[in-house]
Amino acid sequence: MTSLSAQSYKGRISARRGLPLNHVVTAILTHILIPYSLYCLYNELSNKMRIQSIDKSVSAALLVYGTTFANAALYNQTIRTRYGEIQGYPAFNSTPLGNLTNWEDVAVWKGIPYAASTSGSNRWRAPQPVVAWNSTLDASTFGPICAGTKSVSFPGAAVEASSEDCLSLNIWSSAKSADSKLPVVMWSTPAESTASDALFDGGGMATKDVVFVNYNYRTNSIGWMAHPELSAERFAEIGYNSSGNYGMLDQFAAVKWIRENIAAFGGDPEHITVMGQSAGSAATYHIMNSELTKGLIVGAIIESGVRAPKDPLSTSLAENYVTLADSLANGVSFLNSLNVSTIEQARALPVADILTSFQNTEYAFTATLDYYAMPGTYEETLTKGAANDVPVITGNTKDESGAVYAQNITAAAYRSTLNSTYSSEWVERFFDAYPANDSTAGMAENAMWTDRSKIGTWIWAQMHHNASKKPVYSYIWDHAPPGQSQGAYHESEINYVLNNLYDTTSTPWAAADYSIAHTMNQYWVNFIKTGDPNGKGLVDWPATNARQDVQRLGDAFERVSVASEAQIRLVESWFNTLVSY
User: Fold this and answer.
1) Which residue in 13, 267, 463, 554 has its CB near the most CB atoms, within 10 A?
2) Among candidates 90, 116, 206, which has minimal Cα distance to 168?
3) CA 389 to the chain's CA centroid
4) pTM, to two decimals
5) Would you call 506 helix, strand, or coil by DSSP?
6) What is the per-residue pLDDT across 456-507, written as a single tens digit (0 to 9) for each?
7) How far, in Å, CA of 213 to CA of 559, rounded?
8) What is the four-CA torsion angle of 28, 34, 39, 42, rounded to 10 degrees?
C-alpha cells in the first residue's frame, strides 16, 4: 500500500460524498495504515455517535490517524539515530507460547552496528566509531558473529557467518514512541555464544516494558591479545600503557552507544542496567568497576560470576584475568608461533590463522589487569568500591563450578577430588564437613562445590557491602529444566529470567516451567525498573547482610541457609590461607 498525505487523502475522498460513514472510514484506514484493531474500535464508536457530517468524519478519522501513528508500535516507524535511519520489524509473527502479553507491540531491530569493522588496521585496536549510513538500514537480520565464537542456539542450527566486522547489537522494545523512556537492560553473552542465539532472545523481557539490548563483542585472540607493540600504540593514543582488553572495550562501547541512541527506541538513556551470565557476568562486573563507564548504569545483574577474591576458582572461571606482564609475554610467544614478529605482519594474516580453540591451555586469552580498562584486582575494587556504586543481583546455579548433578562416584573417587583440590589438613577437614561413603559420595561432592559457590558469593557480598551504599541481592538457582540430565546446570536459569521459553522449542517445557519463568522474570524486571527485585505477589527477597542466608529461586522461592555454620567457617578459614586475586 501507499500512504497518502492528508491533502491528497482529502482529495481522494471528496468524490465519495454521500457514502455511509463506515465506508468512508474504511477508505481512510485502507490508505493510511491504521492498525485494524483500532479501526474496529473507531468504527464502533462512530456508529454509536451517528456522526452525520462527512467533513466531521474526515476530521475525526485524521485525528485518529495522528494519535494512532504517534502511539503505534515502533516497527511502523523509521527510527532516527545519530548514525542514520533504521527500520525495525515485529518481534513476533504469531502468538508465542507461554504467558506473554503485549507481544503484538514488541519491535525488534537486528544487526545495528555500534562500532566500525575490526579488521585490517583496526585489528587489536579499541573499537572505532561506526561510519554513518545514508540510506535506511534494514534491521531484519542479525549481524555476523565475531570470529572465534560460535552460535549454540539449538542442535542442528545453521552455521552463522563469522567476520571481524561483527560489532553489532539488537534491540527489542514495546515502546509506542521515542518519548516512552522505558528502562533499559543490556545483556552480555556467555563464552562461545553470540547475541543471535535463541537463548538470548529479548522479546519476553520487552513485553514487560523493558527495552532489551544484546550485542556481539570480540573474544579469543582478537579480543584479548596483548603485545608490547600494541601497548606502545595505545600509549601514543591515550597516554596509558595498556594492551589487550579489546573485547572489554567493545563491551564499554556498546553501553556508550546505548546511552547515546536508545531514546529513539523508547528507552531511557539515564536508566541502563547491565546484565550477563558467565563470561557475560564478567563483562557486567567490568562495566560496574571501570572508571571508563562511570555514571552510565544504574544496576548490575551478575549471573554465575562473582565469588570471594581468595577462591582459586577466580583464576580459572569466567571472571579470571592475568597481569599485564604475563599477557604481554603470552602475546609475544603467540606471534612467534605464527611465524611473525610484528603487529603489522599479524594484522595481515587471515583471521582464521590467529584463532585458538576455546580454553586453549598453551595460549590462553583473557582479561588483562592493565589498570586502565580494568582498574584493579578484585580485592582492590571490593575494598575501594566500584566506579559505579549501583544495586546488584548476583548468584549461582546449583550444579556448576565443579558441582555435577547426580554423579555416581565412589568414596575413593571423592577423596581423590579432595586431594587434588585441597592440601594437608584441609583434605580431612573438608571430608569431615562433607562426609560420604560409596552410596553418598556423589551427593557429598556436589554439596561441597555448591556450598563453596554460595559461601564465596556471600563473602563477596559482605565485602561489597562494606564499600557500597547500595544493596546486593544474592540467590541460588536450583530448578532443573526438563529434557536433560545435568540438573540446574550452568546457564539453566537464562530462559526463565528472560521469560523466553517460546524460543527454545526443543525443550519439553511444562506448566511448572512457565510459572517459574513468570516469577523469575518478574523479580528481574522489578530490579531493572527500580533497583529492587521485590514486588506485589512475590516472596520477599531481602538484601544480603550479615545473616548467613541466600534466596532460593526455582523449585521453591524462599530464604535458605548459605550452609551450616561449621561449613561456612571452614571455607572462610581455608580462603584466608590463600592469596587474594
Assistant:
1) 267
2) 116
3) 19
4) 0.87
5) coil
6) 999 999 999 889 999 999 999 999 999 999 999 999 999 999 999 998 888 9
7) 31
8) -80
